[in-house]
Every structure is written in structure tokens, then in C-alpha cells.
UniProtKB/TrEMBL annotation:
Organism lineage string: Bacteria, Bacillati, Actinomycetota, Actinomycetes, Mycobacteriales
Stored InterPro entries: Glyas_Bleomycin-R_OHBP_Dase, Glyas_Fos-R_dOase_dom, VOC_core
Family matches, as SUPFAM superfamilies: Glyoxalase/Bleomycin resistance protein/Dihydroxybiphenyl dioxygenase
Listed Pfam families: Glyoxalase
Domain (VOC): residue spans on this chain: 1-127
Name of the featured protein: VOC family protein
Amino acid sequence: MLDHVFLTVSDPQASIAFYTAALAPLGITTRLDYAGEDGPPGHPDLYGLGDAGRMIFWLRRGTAAGGAAHVGFVADSTAEVDAAYAAAIAAGAIDDGAPGARLHYDPRYYAANVLDPDGYSLEFVYKSWQH
């Protein structure tokens, strides 16, 4: 199981605004910044998002490599998938697969896909058998 992910973004403030809006429907609403100067030499500034006091998703400034990452976020229902997709689109995401069943995986696999402002692939997914 993963504890956290770092994603390199070209404009941290724009990405913070995007992810704050896009992930809120999934309950990922906690924000925490980490000043790199508080870490070992060369540690980057980090901008975290999470829930229940646990930061799981961190952004850092750098050269973004859009197609280099795909991140799937767990939703607790098909309605959460729909809401996250709508929030992401409203925040500037590019549609990469409207909400619906992903029959090529499983009839119970419900997801929506978008590209974030740096071109990273994001998936909001509900798998009924995992809930």
C-alpha cells in the first residue's frame, strides 16, 4: 500500500488550486505545506493534500513531464466519481474519459479520467467490490 506520492508540477500555486477543487469531492480536503529548508540540503518545498490528517499527495515545483504519471484516486461511490470529474473539469482539466463503467476491466469498475494542467493523467475510480 502506498503512503504518499510526489508529483512535479510547473506552477505549484495553480496546481494547488486545481487539486484542491478536484479532490474535494473525494474528501481530500486537508492541506499542508513543507518548507524544504527544514529538511536535508536540497530538499524541495512540498505542498501536500490529504484527509484525516494524513498527507498522501504532494506537489513540488519543477519541470513537469505530463505523460509520465497516472494517478488513480479512490472514490466511495459512482456519485463521488461524477462529482470529482465535474470539479476537475470546472477547475481546468481536460476530459480524458467521461464517467462510466470501464468494461474492459470489470463491469463494476466505474471511473472518470482527466488530464491536469501539466498533462498528468488522473483517474477517479469506484470499484464496488473493494468497498
